[in-house]
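ok trying this again, last paste got cut off
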Amino acid sequence: MFLEIITVEKKLYAGEIELVQVPGSKGSFEILKNHAPIISTLDKGKIKVVDTEGNKQFFEINSGVIEAAYNKVVVLAEVV
């Protein structure tokens, strides 16, 4: 699954991942490979990314939007 995390200033992340966990407006949720298409707003919190080798990275955001479809995930985020 391919993930991009984009802010106004720069691209924070782009690459193949196993999962992404995001702070959704109605609570935290994860997206895994073959997830049903979704668009959701994000609240302040941390995005957790686990890449294909099991490495974890965290990104702090103030708000944002996530779209996932056909194993491509795009996060448009406002950062701290």
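PB: full thing came through this time. The beta strands are 2-6, 11-24, 27-32, 38-42, 45-51, 56-69, 72-79.
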